[in-house]
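This part of the workshop introduces the protein records we will be handling. To make this concrete, we reproduce a full record directly below.
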Amino acid sequence: MQRISVVVIGAGQAGLAISHCLAGRGVPHVVLERGRIAERWRSERWDSLRLLTPNWMTRLPGWSYRGAEPDGFMASGDFAGYLDAYAGATDAPVECGVTVQAVRFGRRGYRVETNRGTWEAAAVVIATGYCDRPAIPDLAQALPAGIRQVTPSDYRNPAELPAGGVLVVGASATGVQLAEEIQRAGRQVHLSVGRHTRLPRHYRGRDIWCWLERTGLLDERTTEVSDLARARQQPSFQLVGRPDGGTTDLGTLQAAGVRLLGRATGHSGGVLHLQDDLEETVEGAQRALERLLARIDGLADQAGASPEPGVAHRIRVGTAPTSLDLDAAGIGSVVWATGFRRDYGWLQVPVLGTDGEIVHQGGITPAPGLFALGLRFMRRRRSSFIDGVGQDARELTEAILDHLTLPSRVAA
């Protein structure tokens, strides 16, 4: 049994950020990682993936991008190297190849059981990330056995997909990126569209992230939104980190030949059933886009930025079918770009809600000494972004210190 003040689970950006903050306050801790540092960025990302945020936004506590392309978009492998360098520069106490099998209450706080022994700690930080396990709908079980089904975690490139057309389900950031890539590879893509947040890559002379930051939208706190549960369920921004800086949305996909469909609801007899909601869904995204651009316009006008008409043009989708015969359409594979869920089967502490998510207030759970970091809208809207986890980590460190200063909390 090893004893330490704090165990951090996960060595991605969240785990390394909180490690840096804990080290800065002299708190003994260890970071346990099931694979390598930034493992998901290494082994669960497709070949062409680039960050959605420009390099200048790749900021962590005590560390920021200093390369020659601040307005570029880092490839996933390069970002893994970036985190490696961060861990090395901060001398983060990372133990790689350590799989956490159980976290439960212990005599001095918590017992963290792993494949390489047990740790006892006064506090535990769950930093396993928001993108944990692909969320695959029950519909997947009803599809014909001859159709290959993949998730973004195991998709690598179009050449690995079997011959034939491809159905991509989901039109947030991941769905539109994969639909564009597969269509450009000469495959007919059918895109089943659900709720999405449409954004231009650039607006009024700046990358859209610059305006999102300047308007204060990214720093909105949980107390500033009327419906926090809904805010946490907002689909990811429909953006692509393309080297040419271009915008990818349903309009550009449609122009490239992607066939747009409504939400998939079921399957029977080789036919995929679709909801007649495509126009409604696209119109909802349109209204949200117009509200956001109006908010940006007020700030841009004050800054003297040139007007940019036409960015919020309506996307005309027309009448969408209510069914798709998979065989007739030549569908050989389905890509489920339907988001992620968290798997806390190893967490033996009663802090999970009925939805299977950790119950918390700003990363502080009902169990004293158990914390979470890197979750969607945890403290502010940017919480789950690379650029947002740092401030949350600093604030959470103060809560950890408050817990550790209680009598008998600091492990010997």
